[in-house]
Write a structure and sequence with these properties.
This protein is mainly alpha-helical. It has a single domain, classed as Helix Hairpins, CATH 1.10.287.70. Helices cover 74% and strands 4% of the residues. The mean pLDDT is 82.
Length: 136
């Protein structure tokens, strides 16, 4: 039950961050700015940490999300959280080093996270371009 609540809360925070960025683009930013750059970095950080927490909670509940090539066995919570954040970052930025492999429910979550990470830059560029065209 805790897993569902934490996962849902993380997804709500991620959705709110995405909505906030796109609504701020609508009214405040007509072209790329320092403020927009920092907003994008914060958005990626929120998404990375949000999915990392989801992976961490699922792994702690015994639900396999990823498998590591050189698995050391059971780690303390801090190392497991670091691994979950690493897996989230590699997935979000679609790097795919190959040292960690999604398994089970982690495959679906990894696809969703990679889709967000892959499509977000294109959506941001399209939004800025649309605002630029409207100003002309």
């Amino acid at each position: 039950m805790v897993t569902v609540i934490v996962s849902a809360l993380c997804l709500v925070i991620i959705s709110a961050a995405l909505r906030q960025l796109f609504s701020s683009l609508e009214f405040e930013h007509r072209m790329f700015s320092y403020h927009l750059f920092v907003s994008i970095l914060l958005l990626y950080t929120i998404i990375l940490i949000g999915f990392g927490i989801i992976y961490f909670v699922l792994m702690k509940e015994g639900i396999g999300v990823y498998r590591e090539e050189l698995d050391d066995g059971s780690l303390d919570w801090m190392h497991e959280m670091a691994r979950s954040l690493y897996f989230s970052g590699v997935t979000l930025f679609t790097v795919g080093y190959g040292d960690m492999i999604p398994v089970g429910v982690g495959r679906a979550l990894a696809i969703i996270e990679a889709m967000v990470g892959y499509s977000l830059p294109a959506a941001l560029v399209a939004k800025v371009w649309q605002n630029y065209k409207e100003d002309r």
